[in-house]
Amino acid sequence: MKLYVKETSMVQPAECRPRHSLWLSNLDLLQLKNHVITIYAYNKPSADQGGSASSSELFFDTKVLKDSLSKALVTFYPMAGRLGRDGNGRLELDCSGEGALFYEAESETTLAELGEFLPVPEGGEFSPGPVVQLTELAPRVDYSKGVSSYPLLILQVTRFKCGGVCLGIGIHHSLADGESSLSFINTWSDMARGLPVAATPFFDHTILRARQPAAPKFHHTEYDPHPTMITNNKQQNPPKPATIDIITITPEQLQNLKDKAKFRCSTYEIFTAHVWRCLSKARGLADEQPTKLQISVDGRSRLNPPPPPGYFGNVIFHTTPVAPVGELVSEPMAQTVERIRQAIRRMDNEYLTSAIDYLEDPSSPEGIIQLPGYCRSPNLKLVNWMWLPFKGADFGWGSSILYRKTDLSEGMGLILPRNPDGSLSLVICLEADVMEPFKKLQYESGP
Q1: How many other CB atoms sit within 10 Å of the CB of residue 401?
Q2: Cα separation of 84 and 94, whole Å?
Q3: In what order do the strands lie in the sheet with 402-405?
Q4: Transferase: present as a keyword of the record (predicted)?
Q5: How many CA atoms lie within 13 A of 198 on its CB side?
């Protein structure tokens, strides 16, 4: 993609606050130390689409965006800060007010030329296909210079020759999960439209501090090393080429799955079970091969007492049912659903409190236990965006027509919010030779 960055700036809060540090919880430290980048695409409004001439001429006016961003950073002031370390070397948030990085760019292509607008596989060899380098639509971050060297919020407005625009928003994962990130984006977009905003984010992460001394009640298998591929070789094979695609399941196909399962279950449960089984079949794994399903669970409604409304940070836990492939692909769908249901059901206050304690490791430089890496084959990680409060990121020129995460690792899938027709879409990254068999099995919709 031919893209040129025309201007870079640092947007600071409209009002200054005294500089101070915020403690980060074990759940914050659990996250990957990088930015989660989401790209929003917008068509330029025309007169026959209800857009006025003036609004069309000022489409995605960067002055409006920067002014409203500066105001939003007063309310969400930690986002204008940087990461730092306390006296023990533990990561913390330095509320320095240094600001957010803002790029303005232009591309010689059109939105239509972005094709399927898919993310980019992380690491390994790249498999050719209709994958667009979405990473170009947000500022690049050099993480090698230390945690204090880069902004926690990075943004980029890219204008295309068709008049369309992409807005890339990157928020460091140590700062916020999806729920918190969207509360900021929704507040910023409301401010850009001149709407009254009553956001009252809560930044005290010490409410999720481990007990002293830490007293985990359970062994948390979700933080154990992931199962590796059974092989006769002493060394694991190198990663294969990866590719990314979108699978969409219609409401009729979802209902067909539920009917054949003969088991009362939620759409999320049946869809997750179907994906896990189909992928295990498509990979052609040995019957005795263990496979782990990693599911993200929001702890806000499960902790007792729950975090205050507006809690801004990470409250994401993981649950990980594990099964031998042979059992998984041969058992009734109802049994697979029950595996998932039981794994989620156990995530009550007692278990989550134990998980926070389990992560604690004062002897570690990072303050938490060493964590497993990417959830690659023979495993599957599913991130659920079905219920996140997406409002279309309307900054005054209409809602986005599309949004995407910029990158995925092999073995990772992202369940998007329901489409207007009730269908569900899954963006997934798999080894290239597995993708087509997986898609075929998905659409067969068998139990």
Answers
A1: 13
A2: 6
A3: 3-11, 100-107, 153-159, 165-172, 35-42, 402-405
A4: yes
A5: 1
**Residue numbers annotated as active site:** 173, 394
Give the C-alpha separation, 264 to 158, whole Å.
46
User: 222-390+407-444, superfamily in CATH?
Assistant: Chloramphenicol acetyltransferase-like domain (3.30.559.10)
| Least confident interval from 110-119, 230-239, 419-428, 430-439 | 230-239
Q: What is the mean pLDDT of the chain?
A: 89
Domain-wise residue ranges, the chain? 3-208, 222-390+407-444
Q: What is the dihedral of CA 9, 15, 16, 18, to 10 degrees?
A: -140
Interval 121-144: pLDDT, tens: 665 443 334 334 788 899 999 999
pLDDT digits (tens, 9 = 90+) for 351-381: 999 999 999 998 887 888 887 777 899 999 9
CATH T-level fold of 3-208? Chloramphenicol Acetyltransferase (3.30.559)
What does each C-alpha distance from 361 to 28, 184, 309, 313 come to in angstroms? 14, 31, 29, 20
Whether the CB-CB separation of 395 and 409 falls below 8 Å is answered with no
User: In this predicted structure, which of 5-14, 83-92, 105-114 has the lowest mean pLDDT?
Assistant: 105-114
Whether the link from the prior residue into 227 is cis, omega within 30° of 0, is no
Q: What does the alpha-carbon distance between residue 356 and residue 184 come to, in Å, rounded to a whole number?
A: 25
- For 9, the 3-state DSSP assignment is strand
Axis-axis angle for helices 267-282, 432-444 (nearest 10): 130
Bridging pattern class, strands 100-107 and 153-159: parallel
**Beta-strand runs (E) in 33-86:** 35-42, 82-85
Fold matches, 3-208 and 222-390+407-444 = yes
The C-alpha atoms of residue 436 and residue 440 are separated, in whole angstroms, by 6
Q: Decide if 166 contacts 35 (C-beta within 8 A).
A: no
Rounded-to-integer distance, Cα 3 and Cα 7, Å = 12
Residue pair 103/156 in contact by the 8 Å Cβ criterion: yes
User: Which pairing describes strands 35-42 and 165-172: parallel, antiparallel, or unpaired?
Assistant: antiparallel
pTM: 0.92
Q: Does residue 81 contact residue 97 with C-beta atoms inside 8 Å? A: yes
